[in-house]
């Protein structure tokens, strides 16, 4: 089923002249779906209208979920077929090296949300919870596979290798290695092609040790594993549990004997962790497609030559690299701590030296708690900065930015945006709610922002925010909300100077 088509669910499975039909044994159910109505690269809200009297019954809700699942799967298939063939789980696909389009991400969040909600509805609670108690083993085993370079060993071996040979190359005991690979292969990460013979799969190929995803996986799990294991002790500790200070996070609870201030102070005293974190943040923009979304889905071409863009808390400038490559008419400024900008200059001299030669990028140190960014920029931009800090500190940062803005300036806050789990009337902000009967936030189809919220609580005592919370912080800092750009995972909240 293609985007912008109506699907009418009738009493039988099949295909009619008007398009696909879906099973509905409780009576006729009208499902009007508008999936991915795109204008200028952005998604309008997904709309699902139903005969409400029938939607009240559990069976009707299940049939509606089946309709959504079928529709979203067809949209994903259509997006692949738009440029080639559909993928196989056994091997890589040409589009695996590309950032997923908003159309594909939009279809996947409905598909994943509907699948999970169907299973949770139809399975007994004990069935679900007995499986969930072991979920921590999957990331642990993937982390092991990356560090042991299992995927590297299997590159160029489509028929696989005996586990004995893999064990010899990795230095891991053969029997234990086979059990870990069999566990991962049961979730389609690696393949057991014959008894004790394993090969890469589409899901394991990105885990080669040199890949951005592998680097990001190691970085993320290095910070969070220890903190998560201490979550009950941390939350019930009379000193750490009630505190919202960065120095009292769960991560700092696990290293409290080192006498350090917060995560960033910890990294200064552990240079190898700081380097891993910096590289991981660059990898994050590559893997999630944040840089591609910013570069391709914002109307940069409408901006005049030498329009100015200031990346506040830029890190080494991985986001801006893609922007500079695609839009050479922009003048970019990276702002971060001096030692971070030293690394940024080195990166840019390797990756895009012409931007330095043409003076299209500046590197300006900043302490955004004490001072504002460079003045009178057309666009101020922060990616995954606001979520690192408490409300009070975010207001300090935003007030400093407000003081540097000219009347025509815009501030773009690029972050995960949490959605309420109760339904409410659309408010015209551009925020998207999932079609019923999915959870309004797409449930498991949009779980990463909520995982990141937990991660931030563990490592920084920080948080992701609802759109209303971000808007309120901006208002208190003298900014006026303009709109939210929904990018089917992250979002960009746009502000201007309040009148």
TrEMBL record:
Top-level taxon of origin: Eukaryota
Alphabetical keyword list: Methyltransferase, S-adenosyl-L-methionine, Transferase
InterPro entries xrefs: COMT-like (IPR016461), COMT_C (IPR001077), COMT_dimerisation (IPR012967), SAM-dependent_MTases_sf (IPR029063), WH-like_DNA-bd_sf (IPR036388), WH_DNA-bd_sf (IPR036390)
Gene3D superfamilies: Vaccinia Virus protein VP39, Winged helix-like DNA-binding domain superfamily/Winged helix DNA-binding domain
Ranges for domain O-methyltransferase C-terminal: 259-478
Any GO MF annotation of the entry: protein dimerization activity
Single GO biological process annotation from the record: methylation
Domain O-methyltransferase dimerisation residue range list: 137-205
Cited PANTHER family: O-METHYLTRANSFERASE CICE (PTHR43712:SF2), PUTATIVE (AFU_ORTHOLOGUE AFUA_4G14580)-RELATED (PTHR43712)
The protein's name in its UniProt record: Uncharacterized protein
């Amino acid at each position: 089923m293609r985007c912008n088509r109506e699907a009418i669910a009738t009493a039988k499975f099949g295909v009619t002249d008007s398009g696909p039909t879906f099973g509905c044994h409780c009576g006729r159910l009208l499902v009007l779906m508008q999936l991915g109505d795109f204008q200028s690269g952005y998604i309008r809200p997904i709309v699902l209208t139903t005969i409400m009297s029938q939607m009240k019954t559990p069976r009707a809700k299940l049939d509606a979920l089946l309709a959504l699942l079928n529709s979203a799967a067809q949209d994903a298939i259509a997006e692949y077929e738009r440029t080639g063939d559909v993928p196989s789980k056994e091997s890589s696909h040409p589009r695996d090296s590309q950032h997923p389009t908003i159309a594909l991400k939009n279809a996947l969040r409905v598909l994943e949300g509907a699948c999970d909600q169907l299973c949770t509805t139809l399975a007994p609670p004990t069935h679900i919870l007995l499986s969930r108690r072991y979920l921590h083993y999957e990331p642990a085993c993937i982390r092991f596979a990356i560090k042991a370079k299992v995927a590297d060993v299997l590159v160029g071996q489509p028929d696989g290798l005996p586990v004995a040979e893999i064990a010899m190359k990795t230095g891991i005991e053969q029997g234990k290695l086979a059990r870990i690979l069999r566990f991962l292969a049961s979730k389609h990460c690696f393949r057991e092609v014959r008894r004790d013979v394993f090969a890469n799969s589409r899901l394991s190929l990105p885990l080669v040790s040199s890949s951005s995803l592998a680097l990001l996986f190691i970085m993320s799990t290095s910070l969070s594993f220890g903190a998560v294991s201490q979550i009950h002790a941390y939350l019930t500790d009379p000193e750490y549990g009630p505190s919202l200070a960065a120095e009292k996070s769960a991560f700092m609870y696990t290293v409290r004997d080192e006498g350090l201030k917060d995560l960033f102070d910890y990294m200064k005293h552990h240079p190898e962790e700081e380097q891993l974190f910096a590289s991981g943040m660059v990898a994050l923009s590559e893997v999630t497609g944040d840089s591609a979304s910013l570069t391709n889905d914002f109307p940069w071409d409408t901006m005049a030559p030498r329009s100015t863009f200031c990346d506040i808390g830029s890190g080494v400038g991985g986001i801006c690299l893609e922007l500079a490559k695609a839009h050479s008419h922009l003048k970019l400024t990276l702002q971060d701590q001096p030692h971070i900008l030293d690394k940024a200059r080195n990166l840019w001299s390797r990756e895009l030296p012409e931007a330095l030669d043409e003076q299209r990028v500046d590197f300006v140190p900043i302490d955004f708690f004490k001072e504002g960014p460079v003045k009178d920029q057309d666009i101020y931009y922060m990616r995954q900065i606001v979520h690192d800090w408490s409300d009070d500190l975010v207001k300090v940062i935003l007030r400093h930015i407000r003081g540097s803005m000219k009347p025509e300036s815009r501030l773009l806050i690029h972050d995960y945006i949490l959605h309420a789990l109760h339904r409410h009337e659309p408010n015209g902000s551009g925020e998207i709610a999932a079609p019923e009967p999915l959870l309004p936030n797409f449930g498991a189809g949009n779980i990463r922002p909520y995982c990141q919220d937990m991660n931030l609580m563990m490592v920084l005592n920080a948080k992701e925010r609802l759109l209303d919370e971000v808007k309120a912080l901006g208002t208190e800092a003298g900014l006026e909300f303009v709109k939210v750009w929904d990018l089917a995972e992250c979002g960009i909240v746009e502000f201007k100077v309040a009148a």
